[in-house]
Amino acid sequence: MIFRLKTSKRTQEIFEELEHRTNYKPYTLVKHAIAWSLLEKTSVSDYKSDSDGLDLNRQTITGDNDTYFKVLIEQVEGRYLTDEEYFPQYVKAHIDRGSKLLLDMYNHAGNMDKYILQVLGEGDTV
Fold it and tell me: Which InterPro entries match (predicted)?
C-alpha cells in the first residue's frame, strides 16, 4: 500500500502562492483542491501531470476521512476503485486539477473573506 504522493510542479507553485497570500498551509489547501475538483463531476482517469512537486503523505491529505474521500472519488468515477488506483493515482489527479480551480476561485474572490463566502455559498456565483 502506498502512503505518499508527489504533486505536480504547478500544484506546488500554486500552493506556495496561496500559502503566501492566505497563510493556509498545503495540508489545508489540498482538501480545498480536491473538493473543487470533485465539484467538476468529471472523471480524472485520463488526467496527466508530472510528479515534480510537493511530497505529501496520505494521512496529511485525507486524515481520518480517507474512506469518505474514496467514496466521493468513486462516485465521480462511477465505479469501484482499488486502493492502488485510489491512492495515489486518483487522489493526485484531483489535487493537481483542483489546485488550478482553487487558484481561479481565490483570484476571482479577491481575498480570503470573499473566498470563504464562496465556499459557504453566500457569495456571488462564480
Answer: DNA_S_DndE, DndE_sf
What are the extents of the domains in the chain?
Answer: 4-120
Could you give the C-alpha distances from 64 to 37, 69, 90, 93, 94, in angstroms and in order?
A: 20, 10, 18, 20, 18
Model pTM above 0.90: yes
* Longest CA pairwise span in the chain (Å): 42
**What distance in Å separates the CA atoms of residue 119 and residue 2, rounded to the nearest whole number?**
31
Q: Are 41 and 76 in contact (CB under 8 A)?
A: yes
Closest to 52 in 3D by CA, of 84, 5, 1: 5
Kindly report the CATH number that applies to the domain delimited by 4-120.
1.10.1220.160
* Residue 122: alpha-carbon gap to chain centroid: 22
